[in-house]
Amino acid sequence: MDKRENPYRKFFLYLLLIAWGHTISLHAQNSFSILSYNIENAFDTIHDEQKDDLEYCAEGERKWSKSRLYKKLKGVGKVIAAADKERPLDLVGLCEVENDSVMTYLTQRTPLKNIGYKYLMTNSNDKRGIDVALLYSPFTFHLIEKQELKMSMEEPATRDVLRATGTINNGDTLDVYVLHLPSRRGGAAAHNLSMKVVKTLCENIDSIRHFRQSPNMIVMGDFNAENNSKQIKYLTKENVFVNQTAGLKPGSYKYQGEWSLIDHILTYTTSLIPQKSHILNLPFLVEPDNTNGGEKPRRTYLGPIYKGGISDHLPVFTRFVFRKNLD
User: Fold this and answer.
1) What percent of the chain has pLDDT over 90?
2) Model pTM?
3) Number of domains in the chain
4) Which of 93, 140, 285, 298 has the most CB atoms less than 10 A away?
5) Domain hosting residue 150, numbered range
């Protein structure tokens, strides 16, 4: 009998998910893992009249198609599934996602469906229509509320910061921020806008620190800035945040032959103790750099040329253990 016609298949998957959820609850007493990943222009194929997204439509310059989108998202699912060899990730911050249709496909039509991830995302005023999103396991991150941190309408359009508040399995509250700061290509104006986003973020963080005795916070995403930048220094001033991914090699992004680390995971927490951080440099994410030597991310496009990879960034990963297991 064809598996699609097997009446017991759905029942078996249901039992499998229950067993998986129970296993996660047990493992979550010991560890908590997160991934931050810029997935390079994850657009759907339909033009949004309010956004500058024509190049990622079937008739556009890049000849974007459903088959190319689906290949990309299946690759993203493969990365997420392979990130932690011990257990499924608890949180995944994603940058450069266009809309809910992309996230619905990622969570419901790739193998990630069997893990049961939920998602949140922003709906910002970015001119191209790209936003940030958070995948979370409802077994280990129990959502309380979602907030979008928006810039003043007087500022140039940019991406909102996503904040998700939930409880983790030791009972503590955790605030998670996902951001994608403005590109460095805009020079001084882009840098000033980037700093304004960071300061807006810090105002929200300060309000949490004021009302909570022992807050636990994670900030992750594409900062378009390295560890010694003003943006990171502003967040880590007075030891408020610790950059868990500082100094990781080779980097998360390669431009003109030079690696840089512009994707970060920052933490301010007493509940979660960092155990391991690394750049996810899986073989299918890179290719030989024939021009500059070594390797480079296998991106989806190089200019208008379709390369068939997943992203021009590499993901960054951190695993934590709960403090109570160390006491």
Assistant:
1) 81
2) 0.91
3) 1
4) 93
5) 3-325
